[in-house]
Structures are given as C-alpha cells and as structure tokens.
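User: I'll paste a sequence; please echo it back and then give the predicted structure.

Assistant: Echoing your sequence first, then the prediction.
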Amino acid sequence: MEHPRRCQQIVQQVIGRWVGDGLDQISLSIVEKEVLRLAIRKREAISPVEVQKYLELSDKTVLKVLSQLVDKKMLIPASGTIRVRSYQLGDQVKHPV
C-alpha cells in the first residue's frame, strides 16, 4: 500500500523470469507474449473471448494468435477437439511455483 510502484516492478521482474527465460529461444510477437501473460496471471484456462476483451482485438486475430501459440506448443487446447473453446499453458512455458 505504501509503495505501489515498487510492488509493480517486483511483480514484473518475477513474471519476466517465469516467461522470459523459456521464451527467449522462441520468437514471439508482443500480442503472443501478452496472451501468455494473461494465461499465467489467471492460472486457469483462458477463452478466446477473454483474450479478445483483454487485448481489444478482432475475433479472427485472436484465433490466429491462439493457433500460433498452439503450434509453438506454448498453449494447449483445454476443452473441445474440433472447436477449441479454451486454452491452457503448454509445457514450453515454465509454470510458476
């Protein structure tokens, strides 16, 4: 409460360690990194609608980004086989302890 900016910096550093080390080897766009950050923060499956609202992107763009992250094994489908309705973190992303 007394130092909100310092708290924010510490959280960003920790997230950077979780995501940054494992992701440096794979080229990711800013949008892809933001989707992964959302999934890490939420700690459960994310839906395309959530991503669309969070990033304020079109549904087609969101589906394309999610598909790219699945191809890179950063996300895996959490529900559905033909029409995936949610995604969770893949094994490529270091899970928070």
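Strands lie at 75-79, 86-89. Helices lie at 4-23, 30-42, 48-55, 59-71.
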